[in-house]
TrEMBL record:
PROSITE patterns: PEPTIDASE_M14. One of its GO terms (molecular function) is zinc ion binding. InterPro entries: M14A-like_propep (IPR036990), M14A_act_pep (IPR003146), Peptidase_M14 (IPR000834). SUPFAM superfamilies: Protease propeptides/inhibitors, Zn-dependent exopeptidases. The active site is at 414 (proton donor/acceptor). This is Zinc carboxypeptidase A 1. One of its GO terms (biological process) is proteolysis. Its cofactor is Zn(2+).
Amino acid sequence: MSILQTIDGFQFSPVQTSVINNASSTVALGLSAAKLSETVDYSGHKVVSVLPKSEESLQMLESFERKGLITYWNKPSGLNRLASIQISAGNFELISNILAEQALSPTILIDNIQELIEKQKSEIRQRQIQNANSKAFDFENFHVYSELVAFMEEMAANNSLVTYSVIGQSYEGRDIGQVAVRTGSPGVKQIIFLECGVHAREWITESTCIWIFDQLASGYGVDPEITALVDKYDWIIVPTSNPDGYEFTWASDRLWRKNRALTDNPVCPGVDLNRNYDANFGGDGSSPLACSETYHGVSAFSESEARAIRDSLAENRGFVKAFVSVHSYGGIWMSPYGYVTELPLEYDEMYRVMAIGAEAITATYGTPFDYANEAAILCKTNCFFEWNYKDLTSGTTRDYAYVGENIIYAYTIETRGKIYGFVPPPSEILVTAIETWNGIKAMANNLL
């Protein structure tokens, strides 16, 4: 008779226990090496959907994540809610067998992440070749950060509505660029502020926000709805608030999330900028461990990139009517709070407007979109379990916009993308941008 052994409260066979412990050590060493290598190869890594049906299965997934055996692409938002996890080639057989034994119904969504990365690279190059003789900016392709900056500067030089400014420098010394689209002087009209690209691997957000910027700047006087929106509001857009991480995803690790700041662990650089804001800093849903993808940093606003957004909001204090942090992926529109399940005093109004925005997104191409305060979206039925408070989020830009700057219409949009995850092809850019813009326009047209 087999003697079961216990790991983190879960029972496994001796063979499984040995493999899990060895795999955890190998993952830790491999993770450290990957962070220091020139190029990270995800050959054989898979993305798998799972359906946790019990508290125990949710806890097991959390245990596997802590050991580095899986990486969440989308966390489960409750019992009987699908999650997406990344599993390395070396761990796939073990983990998938355990998941099946625990009735989590593992289903492969992406069979080989590296193949998807290479396909994306190939399609980017094909579009670059096709448009090599064109001077026009290709909005249906992905661009390195220097190209985004060059486009913003060019628009500012040739369009009287556009102002380009540098709001700070990244850890590695890159300018953090911001564009404003306005018809008059600053400090007169209310502002709609879009912050994009805080997580490095979410390329579709830079592409979406640079397209929205062009719609505003080029559509004024041509499109009646855009003209009315620019007449009513000033628009401020930061296409990427994490330029170092974004560049690193082009050069070395396509799935990198954080910035590139050094930490107290020499093999684990990077702070999750969306956990570095002074909104329940260091609380549930962030990590004190430098190797974690949600490492919050040593203190609130320890990171220059977070300070740049903070300072831009402060410079426009009293004028920012709405703040939207654009992320991928998930098909979710979220409001404060992320770190506590109680609702803000103004939640009814927050909900009214985000419902209009999310439904406008769905009306465009039929993309399903959830909407609620973030804690409700992430926790569903589970946050009354003490262990599951890690599914909350602390230190986010959106919550800081609300609690730090008193911006009632403070939102996070997680764009479409469940098929391709963080590695969409260029053909997904325009549909993502169009439906996201339709949602933001609907929001803007319904602010009180």
